[in-house]
Design goal:
Layout (H helix, E strand, L loop, with lengths): L5 H20 L11 H7 L11 H12 L21 H13 L6 H22 L6 E5 L2 H22 L11 E5 L4 H10 L2 E5 L9 H11 L4 E7 L11 H11 L2 E5 L24 E4 L1 H4 L7 E5 L2 H8 L7 H4 L20 H10 L1 H24 L3 E3 L7 E6 L4 H13 L7 E4 L2 E7 L7 H9 L3
Parallel strand pairs: 2-3, 2-4, 4-5, 5-6
Antiparallel strand pairs: 1-7, 6-7, 8-9, 9-11, 10-11
Helix pairs in contact: 1-3, 4-13, 5-13, 6-7, 6-11, 8-9, 14-16
Protein name: Aminotransferase class V-fold PLP-dependent enzyme
Pfam family, one: Pyridoxal_deC
Family: Belongs to the group II decarboxylase family.
Length: 456
């Protein structure tokens, strides 16, 4: 099985590289769309057989039957959820990572990869304003990033409580404060950790503020909290919490300050919105998903800690067969998150940053913000459309006057069936609405106009 002949390797290698290059050159890529299980049973059928069907046949099957059954998240009119639109450089380098058999969990095994990943993390840490000792790891996504940060926060709080001799109720903090606009992964992390999420009310602008946070913390008892989670760019609206006042309250009570920038953290690179993030430099931990708004392929979340030693104490796995790694003073990425084995998933992002330079990232993020502002203005200009909240970042939520939930759904289904666009309904305070999330620099003003024209 491993003994492919040179000839076979070359033939299959050429075919895979040609397919990949063609895919990356498509402009635009076809949107494609889901098929039913029954349809796939007919078109693809049984693919795994005792003798194997051969690489070329499997590739053909992927190209003709499987790939078209997957929506292209990098299509310029894919504006649902949060799209993923990697640079060609990042996507191509993913092939290299796959071909290189690198273990990205330890310095001993993957020093070169870890060195490069850490420079990419450093770029983000500098955007945040974290101190030189800050560091972290690339994890699969914001969900694992948030969970890992909260595990580090709780471990730290418990060590401190034990150190101060606080025992009994309140001695082992179990609460997390966040808003209801926080991402679902925060509640999910609390569930996994058997922690309690305390929902803090937001202000008129939908933001978590220090004032409301202080009230909630005092109402429940400061010693019961091990973390506060602020969001720098909520998923539904792109709202950035009032990080400065929130960070101040965290310091006042000595509570870990985590900032979830999975989607919106990328805005740190854009001077036109950088002021929204004031106070973020006080974060004890921070995440941003380069697979969202920083043009890296799935799956890639940057997780950073102000004091990595605290995370290391919480996450290092101990076992006799790992002693050789844990005893060394080296930087082992695996020590900073949930999980052990890891792919060097930060490398495609690093390669693209190294290739294009950070100025290109600033320009690309600004470009998406420009198109978002255009979209908001274009929506406001049309009689039957209404912006629900002026966008802070690159998400705009709006309503089509007179439409029911069923109307939004039928419209969305039609656009996808026609492979024209992928824009799903969302909801806010019980009302069905729709939403554009613009993180693809290829999404143009023309795309926005074309989609809005279908809502007349
Ligand atoms: C997307 C998102 C997450 C979850 O990230 P995944 O990479 O999907 O696990 C967490 N928080 C926010 C604010 C997000 O937008």
């Amino acid at each position: 099985m491993h003994g492919y002949s040179d000839q076979q390797l070359e033939t299959l290698g050429d075919a895979i590289l040609a397919y990949s290059a063609d895919r990356l050159k498509l402009d635009p890529v076809p949107l494609d769309g889901p098929r039913t299980l029954a349809e796939l049973d007919v078109s693809a059928g049984r693919t795994i057989t005792p003798q194997g069907i051969g690489g070329l046949a499997a590739l053909k099957l992927f190209e003709e039957d499987l790939a078209p059954a997957c929506i292209s998240t990098d299509h310029p009119r894919y504006l649902s959820f949060i799209p993923c639109a990697p640079t060609e450089a990042a996507a191509m380098f993913d092939l290299v990572v796959g071909a290189s058999s690198i273990y990205g969990g330890s310095w001993l095994e993957g020093a070169g990869a870890v060195y490069a990943e850490n420079q990419a993390l450093r770029w983000i840490a500098d955007l945040v304003g974290m101190p030189p000792e800050a560091g972290g790891v690339f994890v699969p996504g914001g969900t694992i990033g948030n969970l890992s940060a909260l595990v580090a926060a709780r471990h730290t709080a418990r060590m401190n409580a034990a150190h101060e001799g606080r025992q009994g109720p309140g001695g082992r903090p179990w609460r997390v404060a966040a808003t209801h606009g926080a991402h679902s992964s925060i509640q999910s992390a609390c569930d996994v950790m058997d922690a309690e999420m305390v929902g803090v009310e937001v202000d008129e602008q939908g933001r978590l503020t220090g004032e409301r946070l202080r009230e909630a913390i005092l109402a429940h008892g400061p010693e019961t909290f091990f973390a506060v989670v602020a969001t720098s760019g909520t998923t539904n609206f792109g709202i950035v919490d009032d990080l400065a006042s929130v960070s101040q309250v965290c310091r006042e009570f000595g509570i870990w300050f985590h900032v979830d920038g999975a989607y919106g953290g990328a805005g740190l690179a854009a001077p036109s919105v950088r002021h929204l993030y004031d106070g973020i430099e006080h974060a004890d931990s921070f995440i941003v998903d380069p697979h969202k708004w920083l043009f890296a392929p799935f799956d890639c979340c940057a997780l950073l800690y102000r004091e990595p030693a605290l995370a290391r104490a919480a996450h290092t796995q101990h076992a006799s067969y790992l002693d050789v790694l844990t005893a060394a003073p080296d930087w082992n990425p695996t020590d900073y998150s949930v999980g052990l084995t890891r792919r060097a998933r930060g490398l495609p992002f690093w390669f693209s940053l190294a290739t294009h330079g950070t100025d290109a990232y600033t320009e690309a993020v600004e470009r998406t913000l420009e198109v978002t502002r255009f979209a908001a203005a274009e929506i406001a200009r049309r009689d039957h459309l209404e912006v629900v909240r002026e966008p802070d970042l690159s998400v705009v939520v709006f309503r089509r006057l007179g439409w029911s939930a069923a109307d939004y759904q039928a419209w969305s289904d039609r656009l996808l069936a026609e492979e024209f666009a992928f824009v799903v309904p969302t909801s806010h305070e019980g009302e069905t609405l729709t939403r554009f999330a613009i993180v693809n620099p290829r999404t143009s003003e023309d795309d926005i106009v074309a989609i809005l024209d279908t809502m007349a």
